[in-house]
Amino acid sequence: TAGTRYSRDERHRLVPELAVVVPAGTGTTALFLGRHLSPRGIAVVAVPCVGDARGSYLRRQMARLDRVTGGTGAPRDLPLVLEPSFGSAAAAAAPFGRPRAELLTTWRSMNDESGLYLDLLYGARAWEVLLSRWETLPRRIANAQLMYLHCGGLEGISSQLNRYRHAGLIEAREVM
After folding, report:
1. Is 14 helix (H, G, I), strand (E, B) or coil?
2. Distance of CA 156 to the CA centre of its chain
3. I need a labelling partner for 55 at 20 to 30 A (CA). Which of 61, 78, 81, 108 fits?
4. Farthest CA pair distance, the chain
5. How many CB atoms lie within 10 A of CB 51?
6. 80 in Cβ contact with 46 (< 8 Å)
7. What is the DSSP string of 83-143?
8. Cα separation, 163 vs 131, whole angstroms
9. Per residue in 115-172, pLDDT tens?
10. Rounded Cα–Cα distance for residues 122 and 115 (Å)
11. Chain centroid to CA 7: how far?
12. Are strands 6-8 and 14-16 parallel, antiparallel or unpaired?
C-alpha cells in the first residue's frame, strides 16, 4: 500500500515492515515478544493500560523484569511505549477499570465498525490510545503494517458491562 515501508527478508524479497501492538499492564507479554521479534526486525509496541497514561509505570515494570530475567533494562532494549496524544480523552488518567463513556465508545466502534470484539479493560484502552495517535504515530512504526495482539480474555465483559450499567452509561438490556 502507499506509504508502507518495506524491508528485505532472508530470501531478498520485499516484505512490509511489521509492528505488533500489545495492550500492556506490567508489559510482560510485550517485553518477551520484543526479545524475540525485535532481532527479526519486527517492532513491538506496548500500550499502557494500567498506571499512568504516559507509561512511566509500564517502562519501570518492563525495565525491572528485563533486568531480573537477564536483560539490561535499558530503554533501547524495551518495546516502544505508545503514549496517548496530549490533550486527548485517552490521555486522561482514569483509574484502571473505571467505566468511562469514551472507553465504551471505542469498544462499541471497534466491534460495530471493524468486527473486533475487545475486552473493556485492556483491549478498548489500547485501541483508544492507538486511535488517538493514528495521525501522529512514532516514525519507526508510522508506515509499518500494524498487527494487534488480542491477549486478554473475553469472559469478564459481562461483569464490566454491569459496572457500566451501574455507572449509568448503558441500559440493562445491553448487558450480556
Report:
1. strand
2. 18
3. 108
4. 56
5. 19
6. yes
7. PPPTTSGGGS-PPTT---HHHHHHHHHHHHHH-----TTTHHHHHHHHHHTGGG--HHHHT
8. 24
9. 999 999 999 999 999 999 999 999 889 889 999 999 877 888 989 999 999 999 999 8
10. 17
11. 24
12. antiparallel
